[in-house]
Structures are given as structure tokens and as C-alpha cells.
Amino acid sequence: MYADVILPLPFSDLYTYTVPVEMQNKIAKGFRVIVPFGTRKHYTAIVKRVHNNAPKNFKTKEIHSIVDSQLVINDIQFKLWEWISFYYMSPIGDVYNAAMPSSMKSDNIKSKFKPKTETYLKINTNIDTDLIVEIIGRAKKQKSLFKQLYNYFEEKEINKINKSDLSNFTNYSPSVLNGLLQKEILQAFDLEVGRINNEVKPLREPYPLSEAQNKSFENIINVFKDKSTCLLHGVTSSGKTEIYIHLIEHFKKQNKQTLYLLPEIALTSQLKQRLIAVYGSKIGVYHSKINDNERAEIWRKMLSNEPYEIIVGVRSSLFLPFQNLGLVIVDEEHETSYKQNEPAPRYHARDTAIMLAHLFNAKTILGSATPSLESYNNAVIGKYGIINLKDRYNNLLMPDIKIENTYELIKRKKMKTVLSPALNTAMQKSLDEGEQVILFRNRRGFSSLLECKQCAWNPKCAKCDVTLTYHKMRNRMVCHYCNTSYKVPSICPSCHSETLETLGKGTEQLEEEVSKLFPNYTVGRMDMDTTRGRDSYDKIIKKFQKKQIDILVGTQMLSKGLDFDNVGIVGIISADSLLNYPDFRSHERGFQLMMQAAGRAGRNKKQGKVIIQSSDPTQPIYDYILNYNYEGFYTEQIAERKLFRYPPFTRLISIIFKDKNEYKVEKGSNLFARTIKPSLGNMVLGPNKPVISRIQQYNIREILLKLDINMSVSKIRDFLKQVELQLREDNEFKYLHIYYDVDII
Ligand code: ADP
Ligand code: ZN
Ligand code: ZN
């Protein structure tokens, strides 16, 4: 008997092992086994197939041992893995690696997962009660403790007690207990306890829905009758989360599980608090900052007879062994953090969620105040249903958005600090009234972008409509889509001043300046640097919720779906830098970010205020923002996407080449491009040198494919794989790193 297994290594192939006779009736598809690999190593592999066909041209090794007595990967999971591996062109071993908590696939022979145990005590029932009295003899304290325990057990109708509860009894001391244990009157034993599964009872029923919410709810249920995916386009604070809760209820009544996906770990804790009130410990929270043993435990519980009914998590929770999934909620579906960029598999969790739902015959709800153009387009063409919620819950007003023209202000010498006078005054007023302030600044400085300090002009590629990046060494501006390079102009082509500069200032500097301007208020900062630690993100958010921070300065991290109730003012500093990213999605991102950021203001009774500082407010995007006009924005953007052949009209696949030897990576990528161009023609761009063209001694080149959306994924995949194999036949390129990123973000 043989077993084909998946190894936790970046291989596309299954590996075949001999199943020793004594294991033959203990092994099946979906079990973990320990197998030898290479000269000395052992790995935890997953059995994909058991069969009797001896491999012809090589001698198989034996399976070392079996880990499980039940399957840990079910058929639907295998199908999902295979789809990811196929669509995202990633080795199946990488999918396995991404899917499972590391303690479940450790390469040690013994499983690393150690269940947590606690010590319990029981009365030795083999000794007669009369005899016990005799054995205890004159040890008074022992007698007293025993009697108390005996009565306690009788009264509660129980037969064991947690050792730590003993301290509540009079006369208890470790030596008294030891006496009773030595006389074998009491017996100690260890019991496995859940690390996470402390029973929590629900506190309340879901809130009743408002009329508008209820109508949306019913429309969604209606859409689900003939479509499997529905987009819920609801403005910030329209009460989407409450609608999700009612959808969860709906599916729970049919005994179906729900997966509730969020784009960021940071958002899980606020949502968890909200859901626990309604569902108690029926929900499991799953993400990478939960320790690995806990994740393994959630996995086990999902396999048990009492699986979680609701899982809240980030993209990795797609891989849990659901048994009866009915609904997938993808909240903030437009967020780009749903896409995994590194390492493989480079999958998009939203799109994978729709596939997962499909495999279960389940439904998907995509929710957002600012849907991605892709999803909105799918709704427009009728692939998805769509429900619109235009008003905030409780008749709350949308924040009032104002734009400050910093170009004019600088000219009139009114910009003494990073804050415009209007923003400064509004902040002061709001803080005086006890409200809080959020200030956004684009990521951190991007020093490879050029901008005119006077008029905010920035250079764009004529062919790709994308901001050019500045290469200092070559003193050229380069399009990283098509590789065209341009001369750096000495004066600004738009306003003719000599003020072209690279962008820079980040959040840290903003924090510093704001602290100086508002010395009586506490300023906090949230960006990549301040949120590295396990709980740091949560801590900052909690501090802000508890009003221990008055002004929170942060990057886009802060705009995402958080529900604060005391924010009077949201300020967006140098909004243009959001729009000038060298990416065809920069306007979409900028629009989403500004709308979402605005949504953090005024979630209480009072109308909130948003001030956007821009040096080029004539751009049409600001009109759409001021008027909360998503449809207008969509119509404009989708036309551009069509014109410049971007998604959703094309599928972008990036082919990445890496090698320590620059000559080799250059030659290899060029050869690859030359081989595919006859078939794919102008759908092939590059090879290019990416903005960051060398990482940890590896030189990088990139070919971008802009494929017609109707082209068959499997044909393209086969073609590319074949070209790759052909290239590798040349010894020079045998070990050249080549990988694919499908649907790049
Ligand atoms: P969204 O997810 O659309 O941003 P939320 O669901 O977070 O909106 O709702 C905004 C606020 O309104 C939250 O504080 C929420 O508790 C409250 N809310 C929404 N719907 C209801 C309802 N039906 N009953 C009571 N409170 C609600
Ligand atoms: Zn270009
Ligand atoms: Zn200029």
C-alpha cells in the first residue's frame, strides 16, 4: 500500500511513500503522517491519496508514523487548497504551509502541541467511608478537610474538584492535602482544559433592526435566492454590522456556520466584543497573533462534534475545517490587505472566500462603504446582487467635509505649520469641548516620488497613466509598469517654478509638530513602527477609546472600520500624496481612504467635521468626495480602467525573477519575455527593474502580464509553466527563482 502526501515544502508535486503493514487500516486521506525526507529530516505531511500502484522508477521510503486517529483536512479543504494552488500558481506545499498552524505541522517526530492541563482531586472510591475515618486517625485538620470535601461533593453532586479551588476550604494547607494524598484517601489527576474555551454566556439578543436595515436584510435574503454573492454598499455607520448579525442568526437557525472575515487583526477585538454579547463563547477568533497552540485548539474544535458556529478572523481563517458553512461575510471588502503578497500562496482572501462559499454551496456577503471597483463592477454586470444603504443609523448626519487649499495658503504665507489655520482652529474648538481628533497622514514618506511643492504637479507615464518613480542613481523618472524612462524636468512643467522635490515627511514628524502645537493634550501615534508588538495595536485603540489620547496621529491603518464615538474632527494632511502613488489604483485607494477616514468622525449625535488639506483641490476626485458620490467616482474610474486596460478588464499577473547574480536574472527574465511575446504580444510588459530591485542580495526583475479577462486561466498557466520548464533545461537557469503573483494589488 502507498500514500501520496503533501509536504510542507514549496513543491507542486505529491510524494509517494510505502505504508507499513501495521499502519494500513489506520491511515486515510486527510490524516497527518511523519515521513522521512532527504538524508536526515522528517516532516509532518498530509495524506492526499492511498493506493496500491507501486511507483515504477524509484524506490519509496516508509512512512515513519501516523499522527492522527481522525482526519484533520476534509475534502472541501483539499478542493480549496487545489484551487488556490492552481489559480494563484503556487505550489501545493506552500498552500499547506499557509493553511495550518505551525504546531500541527512541526517537523519534530513528536507533536509540539501540548494540551494544557490542570490538576483535579477526587475521593478514592475503593476505600470504604468507615475505613477512611480510621485511616485518617487523629489528624484533625485532615479530617476536617476531608469532611468538607465529602459534603461539598454530596451537595453539588460532583465527584471532582480543581486543586486550585481547595484554598477556599478551612484548614486547607498543602501539607494537609499531601497527608490525604499519601494515605490515598484523595487521588490527584490531570485534566485537559481548553485554553480559550471558557464558557461565556450571551448577554443579549441581537438589536432589532431599523426599518432601513430590515429592508436591506430582507433584500439580501432575496438576492441569495438566485445569486450566491451580494454586495452590501452602505455608508459608514449605516449599521452594516448589525445586519451581518441578523444574517448570522438566519443561517444559525439552519444549523449553518458563519465565517466573518476582516482585513486586519486590529479590527477583530472590537468586533469580538460586539459579537460575544450576542453569541457568548460560540464564536472563535482566529488570526496569527493568537498563539499557535490556541490556533491548533480552534482547529481541533472545528473538527469536533461541537464546532464553533461563528469564526471571526483574518484571511488565514479561510483554511479552518468548517463542517457546515452557510455564510461568509467579507467586511471592508475593498481593503487591499485581503491580498497576501509574501510569501506564497499569494492569494486574495475575498476572492478565495467566494470560492470557499461556492464549494459549500454557501452565500457570501461583501460589505463596504467604498466597494472595490472590481466588486462594484460585478454588481453592475449582474454577477452579484447589490443592496444600497445611503443613510447612517439613527439619522446621524454624514460628516461635513471641507477642503483646504494649501497651495493658496502657502502662497499667502498662511501655512505656518503642517496644519492649516482652519484645521488648527477646528481642532482647538473640538478639543476644548472634550472631543477627540484623528489626523491622517499617508503611510510613511515615499522618497522616490517627485512632486512640485508649488502646484503639486507630479509626473505621469504617458502610456500607463501611473505616477513615475524617481531613480536617484540614474536621475531618471521611470514607469514601473512599462519601464519607460523620462528625463527629470529642471522646472515644473505646470507652474514653471524650480520646486520639484521628493516627498518625505511621515507620521513621526507630524506627531512631533502636533505635540508642540497642542501641549495640553495627549498625542498618540499609530503606524507600522508603533504597532509591531503583539498587543500594541489594541493598546493604542483602547487608550483612544478610554479617552486617554486626545489626538491620534496615524496612517491608513486608522481609517479601517473602527467605531469611535467621540471624534469631532478628522484631518487629512497632504491628501495629494495619497493620489500620487505609482499605482493605477491610487485614486481608488485615495477615495476609499478619505471616505473611510471621514467615517470615523461624528459617530455620536453631533455632526462630525472633516478637513482635507490638498495643494491641488481642482482634481475631480475631490468633488466626488465632498458630495459622497461613489457612483460618480466609479463611473469615471471604470472608464479609465477600460481605456488603459486595467482590471476588471484585464487580469494582471506578475512574474518575478530573483537571483544573487544580476547578469543571470537579467538574462533569464529577458529570455522568458522573448519566449512569451510571440504568443502574448503587447500583453507582456517588461522585464522591469522594480522600485526596490535588490532585496537581501537578491536582484529582482519583473514581467507584467496584462491579460484579456476572457483568456483561460488554465491555458495561460500551462503555457507559463511550460516556458519556465524550458528555461530551466538550460543549466544556467536551473535554480533561478521564478514565481507568479496573480491579480496583483
Ligand atoms: P457600520 O458597520 O455600517 O459602520 P455599525 O453596524 O457599526 O455600522 O453601526 C454604527 C453604530 O450604530 C454602532 O454603534 C451600532 O451599535 C449602532 N447600531 C446600528 N444598528 C443598530 C440597531 N439596529 N440597534 C441599535 N444600535 C445600532
Ligand atoms: Zn508606463
Ligand atoms: Zn509646479
- For the biggest β-sheet, the strand order reads 11-12-10-13-14-9-15
Q: In percent, how helical is the residue content?
A: 25-40%
Q: Report, as a whole number of angstroms, the end-to-end distance.
A: 45 Å
Low-confidence stretches: none
Number of domains: 5
| Number of E strands | 31
| Shape field | globular
The class by helix and strand makeup works out as alpha/beta
Rg: 30 Å
What average pLDDT do the residues reach? 89
The biggest beta sheet is recorded as:
7 strands, parallel
CATH architect. name of the largest domain: 3-Layer(aba) Sandwich
Tally of contiguous helical segments: 21
Bound compounds, each kind once, are:
adenosine-5'-diphosphate, zinc ion
Output the CATH topology of the largest domain. Answer: Rossmann fold
Would you identify the CATH H-level superfamily of the largest domain?
Answer: P-loop containing nucleotide triphosphate hydrolases
Question: What amount of the residues lies in strands?
Answer: 15-25%
User: What is the CATH top level name of the largest domain?
Assistant: Alpha Beta
Descriptive overview:
The structure is a single chain. With 745 residues, the protein is an alpha/beta fold. It has five domains: 2-104, PriA, 3(prime) DNA-binding domain (GIY-YIG endonuclease, 3-Layer(aba) Sandwich); 117-192; 211-394, P-loop containing nucleotide triphosphate hydrolases (Rossmann fold), CATH 3.40.50; 396-447 and 504-640, 3-Layer(aba) Sandwich (Rossmann fold), CATH 3.40.50; 650-742, 2-Layer Sandwich (Alpha-Beta Plaits), CATH 3.30.70.260. Helix content is 33%, strand content 22%. It has 21 helices and 31 strands. The strands form seven sheets. A seven-stranded parallel sheet has the order 11-12-10-13-14-9-15, sandwiched between helices. A six-stranded parallel sheet has the order 16-26-25-17-24-23, with helices on both faces. Helix 6 packs across helix 7 (240-252) and helix 17 packs parallel to helix 18. One zinc ion binds at residues 461, 463-464, 479, 481-482, 484.
